[in-house]
Amino acid sequence: MRGASSKKGWRAKSMIIPERVRAVVESSALAHLVTLEPDGSPQVSVVWVGLDGDEIVAGHLAERRKVRNIRDDPRVALSFETSGHDERGLVEYLVIYGTARVFAGGAPALLQRLARTYLGPEVQFPTPEAAQPGYTTHITVDRITGVGPWQGS
Predict the structure, then answer these.
(1) How far apart are CA 92 and CA 83, in angstroms?
(2) Strand order in the sheet with 42-47
C-alpha cells in the first residue's frame, strides 16, 4: 500500500461541508472522481454522488478500477461543473480533495437514492435483476477549491 494514509483503521477527520458546497453535491451535477493508478497516474470516472452527514458517498455495482485504486491509495479528487456563473461570467466549478474508504455492500440502495436525483423520482435503478451488493465509497473532505462562492472554504 502506498502512503501512510492507506493504513488499516486510519481515518481522516471530516471537514464540515459548507451549505453552498452541499447544494452542488446534492444536485444533479455529475462528479468526476479522480483516483490514483498504481504508477501514480490519474484515473477519472464519472460518478453519482450524495451526502451522508459530512461525507460524500458513491455506489459501485462492480469492483472496477476506481474501487481497486481507492483500496491502494485513498487520496481522491472530485470535480463538478455547475450551471452558475461568477461576476466575471466564468462557469462556476467545485473541486473537492478528500480521503476515501471502500465498504462492501450497500450499492443498490445508495444508487436507488441517487437515481431519484440524477434520473427522476419514479426511476428504478439498478433494476432488481442487475442489483448486486457492490461497494460504497465514503469520502471525507480535506480541502475545497474551484470558482464559486466556496472559494476559500
Answers:
(1) 7
(2) 42-47, 31-36, 75-85, 91-104, 135-147, 55-60, 50-52
Which cell is 100 given?
476515501
Which residues span the domain enclosing 118?
Answer: 4-147
Q: Quote the CA–CA distance of 98 and 18 in Å, as a whole number.
A: 15
pTM: 0.87
Domain for residue 153, yes or no?
A: no
Residue-wise pLDDT tens digits, 73-125: 999 999 999 999 999 999 999 999 999 999 999 999 999 999 999 999 999 88
What φ, ψ does residue 93 adopt, rounded to 5°?
Answer: -140, 155
Q: Which CATH number is 93's domain given?
A: 2.30.110.10
Find out whether 94 and 86 touch, Cβ atoms under 8 Å: no
Number of C-beta neighbours around residue 150 at 10 A? 22
Residue 6 has pLDDT above 60, yes or no: no
Query: Which residues are paired to 98 by β-bridges?
Result: 76, 141
Any domain includes 138: yes
